[in-house]
Request: fold
Amino acid sequence: MDLYPFQKRVYELISAGRSVILQAPTGAGKTRAALYPFLRSWAEGAEFPRKCVYSVPMRVLANQFYDEFEGLVRRYGWQRDMDVTIQTGARPEDPKLEGNLIFTTIDQTLSNFLNIPYALSLRQGNLNAGAIASSYLVFDELHLFDPETTLPTTLHLLRSLRGIVPFLVMTATFSTDRVKALAKDLGAEALVLTTEEAAAIPSQQKTRHIGTVDGLLTAGAVLARHQTRSIAICNTVNRAQALYEDLCQRKDADVQVRLLHSRFLRSDRDTAEAWLRREFGKDKSQYIAESAILVATQVIEVGVDITSEALHTEIAPAASVIQRAGRCARYRDEAGEVFVYRVPPNAKGEPNYAPYHSSLESRICELTWQALQNNDARPCDFGGELAIVDQAHGEADRAMIDKWRATRGALAARVADTVAAQERGAAAELIRQVDSRTVIVHPAPEEIENPWALDGFGIFRGSLLGAYDDLEALADQAGEPWIMMTAEPVPEDEESQTTRTIWRWRHIRDKQDLPAALLVAVNPALARYRSDMGFQLGVPGDPNWCSPPRERTKRRESYPPYRRETIVEHVSRMMRVYQSNYYDHGEDQKRLALADEVRYATNRLEQRSGWPAGALDRLTRLAIAVHDLGKLDVRWQGWAHRWQAEVSKLRRVDLTIAENYLAAHTDYDSQNEAERALNYKLGRLRPNHAAESAAAAVEALLSLAGDAGLARAVLTAIIAHHGAGAKGAHGAFRAHRASPQVVEEILREAELQEVHAGKVIWTFPEGEELVNRKVHPNSDAELLAYLLIVRTLRMADQRSQESM
Reply:
């Protein structure tokens, strides 16, 4: 397969374990450069991470990459023999990051690394960080990451993983100095295409002018310059909807007009995007419409492979304007004109740069206008685009890098505190201020079992606040008893890994209730949905309309029941899924052995930290062997035997177990109402076992680890193998008299003959000494070791039950 020179260089660096920050123009083939090293290593079985996490700033981009992946792979010349998944707020199809190639949003990636995952409970908060730390990481469109929150945390993550896994950061519109400075700080290679290198790429051999228009973007301005294909981009959905309606009224009969923004149902969005790809795509022989105009928002700013003769856009930061311009004269030998307009004033008479609200963003928009005026009437190639970006963003970029360097220590401490405390509120500082709310429409929200299973609309909090007065007035006029409701999860059972989330609904009675509501249900009489316009708030609607269920390609409808097994059987099953490939029947998917998934990262972490080769594998096997030692306690076994007697009565079959049967799990069907009631009754009598397991095994861990940091990492993994926030305080423990023989057997199953069963502590009182022996989150080596071990331990634990 032929590669451009820069793609070949990326492959050489990444496959050698190096990391790269790549700056190349839109349409140059950055996605191909990113995926080629992973796909080739997968096909050839080369030494490389066996998982790729591809992070983007917007859901629409993740959707596009996921939906188009099969075609991408076919074009690249590889067969699709891997599990390709998507994980976003709107499509939470891989919440445990079990796929091999995962397209996701940066919010999901960072929340997982910080142990506050958006898609899992806090109890499972430590499950996915190890997947991030062991994957080849791709960060696309980095210039769109929030410079105050998302970007610094991403840079911290990459600094933490230097030398552990390769990463590729991509952008078309960073300032050149910023690219080089970040590469130096991250230990990466800066790869910036020159104007000549970019011009040699066929897709860049075209002519494009970018100029300013001292006025507002109107239907008249679009129609006056329209030939056969035009695109108009507004900064807000409301302005895009208004422009679309005006164009529909004023256009000629032979002109097709379509609207695309973030507030469409998926089926309608798919229809609009299919029309867009056909009518604005590279293959003009596929065009059906004689003349077409697209009105859109930022949803087409990145990753959409379309072209036009004229592109109209409201002023935005230069990086965004250049990205939008990439949808004009995109292909070889084309010519196009880009017109940049001012934005309407706000209530204070100042330019309304929304959604670019901050003073910094407003300043960049003003500098962008100046830079574009300096470039008026001159063709704009890659070098010209970088000049505009440097002029508009250079000042802010230098300030951002200086600030990040100066506050790196404080940021590292904040990240460590967040990982340790699992503080969800830290997301506003470390990921991004969540200004968007998910809005669904339903006449009776109390009847919804899972509100996140409905197809919702993402709406900025400010837009909801601004619309509330109109909604309230409309509700009064229509005699509607309620306006909005929000849902909150009822606290879950900490012992259950299968209990579904129960939602509690409450009314939103004024604006003050909105900021804390991440999901909002709107009365359908106060909103309207049209397949061509999308979702509109504050417009009379059908009182019976409701948001449809979200389509999911993968969904497990029920959880398998637990079946009784001894501690030896449980460890044996866990070792199989750790060391061997595993077939996930629920997802109809073959999974790699867990040891294979983390091997690349563990080998390099050992090298970077000066630990003996294979140390993390041995300690992971020890964690698997001893993680349930706490269940050898006579009280825990007494509870298990009583449970088996009680469930025997319910099922009317003898499920009792012998006195020397040391159980790891009992028979339990969470789908059975009677057994759920029994679990509620007896579950409170079940002793804890996680910290107790760590206390019983602490001497064995210290003996095998040979390093205090490694010992803390594996000790913490055992303490937290059922709850990420476990503190480490343990109860009293007295081992069953058959325990020594069981311990010898589980050590053999884990292939740890060098560990002597006599190292186990067979009896001890309750205590808190382990609280101060847990991992130090501010130590990168300890933290990464813990995250890799606990990921493997918890996944092996869960998969061992699914494979029974």
